[in-house]
Amino acid sequence: MLLDVRDLETHFYGDESVTRALGGISFQVNKGETLGVVGESGCGKSVTALSILRLLPKLTARTVGGEVRFHGRDILALSDREMRQIRGDRIAMIFQEPMTSLNPVYTVGRQIAEAVQIHTKASRSLAMAKAEEMLCLVRIADPQLRVNNYPYEMSGGMRQRAMIAMALACSPELLIADEPTTALDVTIQAQILRLIVDLKERTGTAVMFITHDLGVVAETCQRVIVMYAGRIVEQASVIDLFAHPAHPYTQGLMRSVPDRRRGRQRRLPEIPGIVPSLREPIVGCSFAPRCPFAIDICRDKTPALRDVGSSHAAACWRAEEVMGA
Amino acid sequence: MNGPLLKVQNLTKHYPLGSGLFKKTIPVIRAVEDVSFTVETGETFCIVGESGCGKSTIARLLMRLVEPTGGRVLIDGTDIAGLKKDALRAWRRRMQMVFQDPYSSLNPRLTAGQIITEPVENFECLGRRRHQALAADLLRKVGMSPEMMHRLPSELSGGQRQRLGIARALSLNPSLIIADEAVSALDVSVQAQILNLLLDLQQQMGIAFVFISHDLGVVEHIGHRVAVMYLGRIVELAPCEALFAKPIHPYTEALIAAAPVPDPTRLRLEAPVEGEVPSPVYPPSGCAFHPRCPLAVERCRIEVPPLVPMADGRVVACHVRAPATEISGNPALAGDRSILLAQ
Amino acid sequence: MALLIVLALAAPLYAGDPLSMDPFKRLQPPSAEMWFGSDNLGRDVFARTIFGARISLMVGLLSAVGAALGGLLIGVIAGYVRAFDNIVMRVMDGLMSIPTILLAIALISLTGSGVGILIVAITIPQLPSVTRMVRSAVLSVRERPYVEAAVSGGARLPKVLWRHILPSTIAPLMVQSAIVCADAILTEAGLSFLGVGVPPEIPSWGNMISSSRLYLSIAPLTIFAPGICLAVMVLAVNLLGDGLRDLFDPRAKRGR
Fold first, then answer.
1. Closest residue in C to B61 (Cα–Cα)
2. Interchain contact B185–C (C-beta under 8 A)
3. Domains, chain C, ranges and CATH?
4. Closest residue of chain C to A13, computed from CA coordinates
5. B88-111 in b/e burial notation, b at 16+ Cβ within 10 A?
6. In order of start, what are the domains of chain A with their CATH numbers?
7. In terms of Cα–Cα distance, which of C88, C190, C176 is closest to C133?
8. Average pLDDT, chain A
9. What value of ipTM does the predicted structure carry?
10. Do B123 and C156 touch (CB under 8 A)?
11. Percent of chain A residues past pLDDT 70, beyond the cut
């Protein structure tokens, strides 16, 4: 097991309120696997990534409970210095908008080389050679010319490739990708997804793939966790999840995506209502107010994640009935 | 009146790059190049394409938020390009727009009620009571409670704001609504709510939509006819079902293949199309798609392919898949493409 | 700031006559009768300082209002009517390249001195900065989808401007006005010091500093009183500007 997250709890502090962005989530990432994290905006999927890497804004957010074990060591207890050595070297991250995460005043090659130099004690020229090699790996045409490009001289797709090159330059064991293709066009998205899957197979890096798009999950991941209102509501292999969703939220999510197999011009099954505010404590299941399956127990007691099949867990009192529906 | 509700003929828009005070030739962005199509009453006409293909520019041209470089936009047979101020304002009642971003398209300083009744107040003076009744009525139409009329946009969720945007568009009882990426900024579950709302409104009020989107799944779900655009030109225009069942233009094919499908058991065989969308300032010669096209032949590099009508009522611009020879024997058809497009 | 305004407005009620001269009480140290002592002509420095505040405030506020209104008008026109934009902004650039004080001196020497002309002379050089600010605010708002939405809803130009564009220029305009106000107070003091501002018989801080600089070692209060008041006033106006900015900035309010 590469990464073991237990009861991770993160709060955001506003002027008068506390937002419970993560309400105690536990999951594992195994060596070399691709784990998808899906959910809609505000469900806590990005906060999970930032909490693991300890990149939360210091003034407004704090991880108040739980542990994150990387190779068995709790990285939440490490000093900042030790954390910096893990970040980038053994756990790397790519973001949604590559333009904001690349420094506009340095060439792409230099930024990759710098990442290499921080973690290995390679010489400048060796690091530049490595940068060129990485650009070649992510299939940027003419890497020997492109190393000298500034980020603004590249297209969105190419910048995302450069970001991936930078993230993979130190051969990390875990790559956290936060909506890496959301800002890209469909044809470019397909190229980048294909690239990430290929590279994962070649380097054996585990990938945690954060996205809102069920289609992207289906095409890239082996295992999936579904998040809603700061909690994990379902966890399963990708095949099981799409074949028999066991949480009414997962089911609702899948049905509300337009799908040609169900016929056109029909009303889509919608999830009524809106996501609950995380400022007030939630009693019972957070999905109960929107859930067609909700019964009294759902409104009183919060369901825990429990097994509903081999390697398939759901946090729902009526998961068996949901699966049958 | 049996003519089409909206008829677009050879619409073209070039944006100059920078001001040309000291330069002799100003490079232009060819945002929209010679686009023609028609929209029938009560129909959903979709425009798909990737960023920079000109689909949003078309929306703004139709609303005359920007002036076209060339071409005509006819609504019920009247050319709106020739209209002057007051006539233009009157005409705007027939055509309204729903914007992409539910955050920036609502004035943050006005209440929900003020926002949705503003278009009506531009044309007539409403008393306080009629104003309230109208606001309540519009809110109910888009599935919101009338109490919401006193809220500010910042107190509403993304989905609710987009409902306000739709209510504002409905307030003038238009016969055509242009929706520019109206559901793209929303979460899937909210997106489903809004799409259902649009479908309901169309059924109840017979409104036609020009639905602009990059999301093929959504387009396939609600569209009647679809135009696929690449670098400012329509490359394929077809009835929705036919297009998705059997795309003819290689770009349409690539676009459909690239869209992720929420089905993990589906095997992805074909490799994604290579390369990226070229700059609209210096588009490739001939067919703009030829540098990325697996089928490209010599002719594609030299000659812009014309839109050629196919047997099933679609038009395709491709030298390989839809050679122009088919119609060369019929000059009547070749002469006026817009007749074909109206079919 | 409020304290200063109240003090200045209420001046005639408690301070002595700022103009009466008493040749026998020249350059006196502070006393119960004259709190800050007297100046070279035997005038009450305290009374003159307080009355000086009225002049300074009046010049500052009127210049700020003048610059704000003028700048708003020109800025909105330049921002919304494309044809004027280039011409107006080049003129403003031209104005901006001339130092404020020189321009004011030039204007005054053309017309002769007086408080009214002084305010105009101070206002004109401040126009470019306000205009620029308003123009950029208008430019950034006019591209917003909600303005386009209003236009496609059939709104007439004046309504679009009044309802959708003007409100979002008000916040930065208030802040800019506060800065202009502070600047105007300083400029007035500078001009008066140079002798081209307010006529010398009218008490103004610039006049006072100017006329007392010769007697710095004998009667330090004659120069420090108006000097310190000037500094406090400018600081207060600037703080007011900061406060206004925080009040109007929607980002600060939303807190997210």
1. C152
2. no
3. 58-250 (1.10.3720.10)
4. C256
5. ebebbbbbbbbbbbbbbbbbbbbb
6. 3-102+173-324 (3.40.50.300)
7. C176
8. 89
9. 0.85
10. no
11. 98
